[in-house]
Amino acid sequence: MATAEGGGLDPIHQFEVKPLIDINVGGVDLSFTNVSLFMLVATALTLALMLLPTNKRALVPGRWQNVAELAYEFSGNMLRSSAGAGGMRFFPLVFSLFMFILVANMLGMFPYFYTITSQLIVTFSLAMIVMLTVVIAGLRMHGLSFFKVFVPSGVPGYIIPLVSAIEVISFLSRPISLSVRLFANMLAGHIMLKVFAAFVVSMSAFGAIGVLGAILPLGMTLAITALEFLVAALQAYVFAVLTCIYLNDAVHPHH
Amino acid sequence: MSTQLAQAETTTPAHAEGVSVPLPHTDAQVNTPLHGGEESLFPPFDIDAFPSHIFWLAIAFGILFYFVNRLVVPKVGGILEDRRDRIASDLGEANRLSRETDEVIAAYEAELATARQKAYGIAQERRDEIKAEQARQQAETEATLNARIADAEAEIVARRDAALADVNQIATEATRAIVDRLTGIQVTEADVAEAVRQSEATRA
Predict the structure, then answer these.
(1) Do the chains contact at B79 and A28, CB–CB below 8 Å?
(2) Of A53, A227, B7, B104, whose CB count within 10 A is highest?
């Protein structure tokens, strides 16, 4: 299957990690891979999108400046509506996460481009950034009373242990659900896309009838591509919104 | 802050047991997985590649976060702030101007009302003046007319009296002439006049 010509039809092939520059530090492999490359591309694209069109600082924005401003205000409103004005200190983080994931997801829609959010460790690391920020900022802002986040108010004393246990479990499962949601959506979507596209190729190999029969999977590929664009934007939004909601716990730990 | 977090993360996969195996992430590696058994290792679960992903994610996201914090937020936020300020000040200016306009309109209307009142007053005054003048002239005219009527009447009376006197004279003379012709008696003028007066008295 993973032979030279079979590689194109293998739906997993697109997730293959290829080292471009081998780097080994103290026995730990830190090679610069195609994944790393697209991380840097996503960063560069995001910064270019935000910084280049805003150079004129036009009072009446042009097309690209409008895009940058829309992205900025969109994340700002998202954070303000979830975490209030006190949550705005986390704006750079939320904005970076939202734009990084959005740009990375959209980059993944290009053929031959690597979808970095289909790497579980990448989404998990991003989720851990959020959770560590919540815990550290929560403890710094509220001290030990931050742990009231696990004790909902208005709950009768005798079921507090039970409720708190549930709260702790749900808190600990947040980074997992946050990262797996994004990772699984991107991975599954791209596999599906590749499977249907591969049908087109393999059916076309059966001559004229095969080519006719390939029209159906071709249409599916088209539809799924459109769907994947939606998913790419939606999952970035979901990740950012959940980040905002979790950050709200750090700002307002009292339910 | 992100670098702190990144460090925290780079240490977390320490439990990804001794990743000292140098990673040949080539196509060949997919064919000969490290963990043996299955035909190929599913890339997202390839633990050996995790340190590289985490390391480069920390760098990429760290750069992004740094520049978002340092450049994007002040720049784009500043643009939006400027625009908000500009709109607010423009709105304030518009409000001020509209208030000013209202004031001017009110002043204009007050001025117009007093002017109208004044004009009405002047017109009224003028009207009264004219009316008085007219009354005066009318009275004057009436007075002169009355005087002339009186004069005329007096003259008519005088003329009539004169005419009547003449009539009497003529009658007297005619009577004398008639009496003279018919009778040949020379009647004195005084007698005739007396007779005429008497006949006139009876006619009246």
Answers:
(1) no
(2) A53
